[in-house]
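Shipment paperwork, digital attachment
Item: protein structure file
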Amino acid sequence: MTRRIALSVLALITAILVLAVVPLGLIMTQREQASFRDEAASRTRSIASAAEEYLSDRKADTAARSLVEEARRRGECATVYDRAGHAVLSTACSDVAGDDSAGLVSSVLARPGTRVRQDDQWLTTAVPIGDTSDAAGVAVLSRSADPLHDRILAMWGWLTLIGVGGLGAAVLMSVLLARWVGRPLRVLDAAAQRLGEGALDARAPVEAGPQEVRRLAATFNTMAGRTEALVHGHRAVVADVSHQLRTPLAALRLRLDLLAEDAEGDTAAELADAQGEIARLSRLVDGLLAVARAENAVPRPVPVRVDRVVAERVAAWEPVAQAGRVRIAAECRPGLTGFLGEGDLEQMLDNLIANSLDAVQEGGRVLITGRRQGAMVELRVIDNGPGMGQAARDSAFRRFGNPEAGGTGLGLAIVHRLVTANGGTAELRDSPGGGLTVGLSLPASRPRRDRTGESGPGGTATSDA
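Attachment content:
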């Protein structure tokens, strides 16, 4: 935006300068040329008037000769012709008018009137002497055009200097204006990005920039404050409820275990079912705590060897897979590296592998692939289980959003929050040949702005399938 503002102001000032300076220069050039011609015609008429006394009144040629000599001292060429076209008075450069001087004189004598001829080097003016209806001769004055060219060149030089100075001032003004407008917007953008990444305390300064930008920053701060209050309140409720439930659940489980030791028959079966429900409720509470921690996490990205982490998690889950007679494998390119919060990738993989192992039946397989794709690391967790319907996939990343989940329904919600907090994306799609593929796109390079805050602690792995 700063560049666009600067270029727009600069283009506007440049257009104004061009539209003002160029026509002004052309007008002044025309005036200089007209003044130069008028001055030459005036001097030629003065010579013609003095020569009239000599040719028509038969007086001495002193005045005319004096004016011709004065023209010579100025570097001009003056010649006085009589009625027959013979030169009676002239300077040393009387032939400057060229070979056509005789034609010019003849033209004036035939049709009396002022004649002007100009080329790049000389301006020649021919004026009839005496009565315009019956001229007694012709006065011809040739002036070098070099002084005119010098004045025009100097004038254009000054105009160019003024234009360049104005353009420099425009550049400075446009840069200052762009920074004045753009800097608080960049700060506001950075604050909005930090807020989007989970830094709920992000605020924008309201004392810089135009009034509209200051109002926008104030509105943003109000929105951020309300969002922070709502999110913190929501997180506090989930965390407090989960923590408060843990103690009575532990006590209830202990009492059921004691009762189950002496129970027999139908009573023992009922107590076993109750113990299963208590275990399920405990996993649900742990899942809620994990979601709350994931939502509260603001990762500080560090380099993570994705291929090594995948290999470690596959090795850790291998005994579980063997117990369920499921094959688990990994195909990641060596050296594959991403930028994530420390421990986040392990937690994501644990949840996804647990879901897949719960979903596939005996003889099934779970495959984890990883590769670099542009600026992202693409991870895929592929299984050949029963898959997931379109409606379930659309809501699977929400808490308890998967109606087909056999576990707590929180695992994919945890994965989604960790992925998005790290600047990535997650998607669900059908596996080729049947099953479910979970795709993760994770940053492969350090973000432009370092995220603030510390990564939250990892939650207990929970199952969706």
